[in-house]
Every structure is written in structure tokens, then in C-alpha cells.
């Protein structure tokens, strides 16, 4: 890890903690609110006290200083801030620590098996990597995702969603879905923050998409969930699918996405 990337990680961690602290109501912890608070949410000293931490230590953490972090302290902090599993994972990734509640390392697997499985699925299906590049897809997916998986297009899903006008026409309720995508992508970002390719991807999206730049600085984090996905297809009209996302046990960094339905 370079000095610059380590500093960037600490700065991201501080910004993430500040944004999460601001979202918590003091009333949830039996603390007084009111106009006397200069900022929304909990104060730094309140978070520190609730987590059994030093106020100075927590302040330095939010400031992005180079301080020693323990997995135990991070776990207490995640509990105080009411982190979801996705947010907790992101916290430990940014801190460069292994979560004692997390799963063990995955073993490598041959992607060819995953790509071959795509052809056995009748519904639209594709596999993406941590940068959200499509590694493979079936014919049904190419037919659905016009402008991304058809023709000679850029295969990065984030480039498609945020940089191509076709995505706004294809994806119904684009604004809400796009914000959700950013919150989901932060998990992969936290896992691969030090990689030049990840840094370049985010830098381009921030530079070329004002929407992405604004939402990215909100530091929202959520796990990738299934559910209803609606499209306005240029040839087939309105299509409704239920999305299912699978993480292969031997390659949890990859996502095998299936869209069931199509009515």
C-alpha cells in the first residue's frame, strides 16, 4: 500500500464515519436534542462514550489521522453507529482490518465454469467483476441491455448507467436506481480501494457524471439486494423482472445476476 493510497483510505474512513454519525438521532440513545446542537446527529464525544472509546482517538479517526486501530474497537463502533452488515464490511475494509465476524478467504475458481453456466439460464443473466465489468452474458441479457451488452459497447455497467443516455431511457425510475447502485458499488470499492483500476474508474465517473459525483460524496453503503427491476425496452416496451444476485462460494468477488420474469 502506498503512502498516498493509505492516506486516501483514512480520509474515506473519516468521511464515512462523519456521514453515518450525522444520520443518527440522539433520541435513539436517550440523549437530549434541540436547537443547542450545532450539527445534526450525534456528537463525536457521544459516539466515543457510547463505544467505550477515547474522544481524542475517535476525533483523530474522523480526521483521517494515522492511528492504530483494533478490530475490537471497530466492532464496538459499528454497533454504536447501527451499521448494517454491508456498512460494517465497508468500515473494516477502509480500516484495513479483518472483521472477526466475517467469513474466511475464498479460494480461487476457474471463471470458465461460471461463464458456461450462463448459457443454461433462459432468463437474462450476466457475470460482473468488482469493477462491474461484464465478464460474460447470455443472449437474453444482450437483448435486454441495449447499449451495454449488445453490439460493440463498453462492457462496464457503471459507465453504461452513468455515462450513456440510453440507460436513462431503459431503466425506469433511473434516479432512484442509480443512487442505489452507487451505494451497492461502495462495497466493492472498499474491497479494492488501493487498486489503480478502481481509482481510475471512480475518478472518471466523478469527472464525467455530475450525478455520480454528487451521490458518491454522500457515502451511502448498502448490500446488493434483489427485487423488482423495471425497464422500458426500445422494442419490447415495459418489462418487469425480479433480480437475483448470487456470489459463487469460491469467487465471492464476482456477481452472477439473473433477471427472472420479463412480463
TrEMBL record:
Residues 16-88 form the HTH cro/C1-type domain. Coiled coil: none annotated. It comes from the Bacteria. SMART domains: HTH_XRE. InterPro entries: Cro/C1-type_HTH, Lambda_DNA-bd_dom_sf, MLTR_LBD. This is Transcriptional regulator with XRE-family HTH domain. It comes from Labrys monachus.
